[in-house]
Amino acid sequence: MASNQSPNSFQPFTISERIQQLNEIDKKIAEIMTHTSTALTALTPSPSTPLSTQQQTFKSSMDAFITTLHTIDVHMKRQIFGLEEAGIIDLSNDRADAADQRQKKKAATLSPTAVGTVGNLDVGWLNSRRNRVERDMEAELWRTGREVLEGGKGEGTGAVKGEPMEE
């Protein structure tokens, strides 16, 4: 090989690459607005457009909205982790570290305290270091959003609380 670096060596992104990635995220946010506009337009009653076409337009624009939103979420998390790796931001909680030092100085007891600690273990601190709670909450939100969107199929009567849709 002409290079001294192995093909698996870590190469951090350059400033211009980071700016390009942020620009792509910005474009995706604009796409979300377009998908939202298309979905809302499809919900507006139109005598010239068949109901099935409106439903299909709404479904496809909401699918695109959710896909784009998920893409933005993933890319933003990558940017945040990249900033932390570069030492630009610090996501650690210094107050939790200081509290942890005070806990180590105290004698360890196995009875739980009012602040959520057992001995030298702070349950809240342990949970905050795990990504699982965040992932579970995010998955629940995505599932709820999908259920809301899929549950909007209805019978096609257009009635809300017994009132017919205006034509």
As for the CATH topology of the domain at 15-93, it is Helix Hairpins
What's the assembly state of these chains? single chain
Low-confidence segments: none
Question: Which structural class best describes the helix and strand composition?
Answer: mainly alpha
Number of H- or I-type helical stretches:
5
The percent range for helix content is 55-70%
Order of strands across the biggest sheet?
A: 1-2
How can the largest sheet be summarized?
2 strands, antiparallel
So, CATH architecture of the domain at 15-93?
Orthogonal Bundle
CATH class of the domain at 15-93: Mainly Alpha
Region (Disordered): 146-167
Pfam family, one: Med11
Family: Belongs to the Mediator complex subunit 11 family.
GO cellular component, one term: mediator complex
Structure description:
Component of the Mediator complex. Strands 1-2 form a two-stranded antiparallel ribbon. With 167 residues, the chain is mainly α. It contains 5 helices and 2 strands. Among the domains are: 15-93, Orthogonal Bundle (Helix Hairpins), CATH 1.10.287; 121-151. It is 61% helix and 2% strand.
Index terms:
single chain, 167 residues, Helix Hairpins, two-stranded antiparallel sheet, 2 strands, 61% helix, transcription coregulator activity, transcription regulation, nucleus, activator
